[in-house]
Design brief:
This protein has about 475 residues and is an alpha/beta fold. Helices cover about 30% and strands about 20% of the residues. α1 (about 15-25) packs parallel to α9 (about 305-320).
Length: about 475
């Protein structure tokens, strides 16, 4: 059987475009089916609207309204969207096909789009996700915004929003709540569980929770929504065992689910999990041996940088039959709040679950107010928390100014299993925020030095040295 392509990438997401670019550079014959997917940088850059360490430079201070800031982020995103348009891959030899299609249950496996039938050795799914509706009484009868709709309102309408009820939890809900609060809106955040970000370490999330409340955001955790109703321009939310709340607008941040229906996956034997996402093995191969998937199709909603990392592994496995896999414990996870929150590797709770009594496990914590740079810049909110096992750094959680800038260095240290003595030998410029990594690691020396056995050994050693025999 002669195939038309070595790889057909389905979905013009950032991960899909990267996969097509890599495959073409490896001299394979590649087609990219856009599947009505377009890359979006807007949500990634929105957190800069409330950043105190990276203010937007191209907006005059005397006219820096909230609507202007959001519009500037939109302009930059549109510029890079045009720069990274799928048609830009044409000069690399990628066959770009605009449209949406699905698989055909034939042998050999084929994909039909806009009247064309594509036959390839391998297929890689990198499609988009869409919000799934929440089961809240009265939601269908109330006007509400999704995050994408809210962010693309005209600047004047953004400036006129007086109050917002935001339903949802997770990074996107938290970032949107802080951005709109600092933009001048009264924001009430209603998480769907006890934590605003349930997947991250409780200690750093508690600091972020306190910062949001200090910004003026009202957070109503662990409250069940009974019903919603609309009265004129007001949205009223009735809560169980709590007073009703009202606002000018309602924003719903629902869970995301990949758009798989048009692909006709069931007819070719591709299995989905209980969340509607595509099941893959550690090599990103689906239940059909010719079809691979990465990014949103396998997890609903992931960070673009993580999806791109998955794409680099998946495309190599698809083309060359390798068995590479992703170690998610060594990839930074970021929440673009102010201050930003970063986590890499294991949290203390996870570390205690994996390793048992008798092994050396230390949790080192240093608040930001111990840094002279933090006082110079008035950015004293935050902390650095290191998880250390047998001198080896296995996890780190940070919240504070410039925390995102350290995420790459921390991930590299965890990936190469650097010990704390090696970490401490790193010479850092002072005064900088980077000193917090060195100072936190130095606490390990304090723990070792305070051990009675170590104290006795040092005392004996120097007593002997003073005798003059050595």
């Amino acid at each position: 059987m002669i195939y038309d392509y070595d790889l057909v990438v389905i979905g013009a997401s950032p991960a899909g475009m990267l996969a097509a670019r890599l495959a073409s550079q490896w001299r394979s014959r590649v087609a990219l089916v856009t599947q009505n997917t377009t890359p979006c940088l807007f949500m990634d850059g929105l957190g800069l609207c409330n950043s105190s360490t990276h203010p937007l430079p191209h907006i005059p201070n005397n006219s820096r309204s909230f609507g202007d800031q959001v519009q500037w982020i939109s302009i930059v995103s549109d510029h890079f969207h045009q720069k990274d348009h799928p048609d830009g891959l044409l000069h690399l030899g990628v066959d770009v096909i605009h449209g949406s299609g699905g698989f055909q249950p034939e042998s050999p496996l084929k994909f039909t789009v806009t009247g064309r039938t594509l036959c390839s050795r391998r297929y890689l799914l990198a499609i988009r996700s869409e919000p799934t509706p929440l089961s809240i009484s009265g939601l269908k009868d109330c006007p509400y915004f999704t995050p994408q709709q809210l962010c693309h309102l005209p600047p004047q309408q953004l400036n006129e929003l007086g109050s917002i009820i935001m339903v949802g939890n997770g990074p996107m809900a938290v970032v949107l709540a802080q951005v709109w609060r600092r933009g001048g809106c009264q924001v009430i955040l209603v998480p769907q569980c006890s934590s605003i970000i349930p997947t991250m370490d409780e200690q750093v999330v508690s600091i972020l929770h306190a910062q949001l409340e200090a910004d003026g955001i009202e957070i109503l955790s662990d409250l069940r929504i009974e019903t919603l109703e609309s009265r004129g321009r007001e949205i009223i939310m009735h809560l169980h065992d709590a007073p009703s709340i009202q606002a000018n607008a309602l924003v719903v941040v629902p869970p995301m689910q990949p758009v798989v229906e048009p692909l006709n996956l069931s007819s070719v034997g591709v299995k989905l999990n209980s969340k509607g996402c595509i099941q893959v093995n550690h090599r990103f191969q689906t239940s059909h041996p010719q079809i691979y998937a990465c990014g949103n199709p396998i997890d609903g909603q992931v960070w673009d940088y993580m999806a791109c990392h998955e794409a680099t592994i998946a495309v190599r496995n698809a083309l060359f039959g390798t068995r590479q896999q992703v170690d998610y414990g060594k990839i930074p996870k970021v929440v673009w709040t102010d201050p930003p929150l970063v986590t890499v590797g294991l949290t203390p709770k996870e570390a205690k679950k994996y390793w048992y009594y008798g092994q050396s496990l230390h949790i080192l914590v240093l608040p930001y107010d111990q840094l002279v740079t933090a006082h110079f810049t008035d950015q004293t909110t935050g902390l650095c928390q290191m998880v250390v096992r047998d001198q080896i750094l296995v996890g780190c959680q940070m919240i504070g100014a410039a925390a995102v800038e350290f995420s790459g260095a921390i991930a590299l240290a965890i990936q190469h299993r650097l010990t704390l003595p090696q970490f401490i030998q790193l010479a850092l410029v002072s005064p900088t925020y980077g000193e917090i990594l060195h100072q936190t690691a130095m606490q390990w020396y304090d723990i070792q030095a305070s051990h009675p056995r170590h104290q006795r050994w040092l005392e004996t050693f120097f007593n002997w040295r003073r005798t003059g025999y050595w």
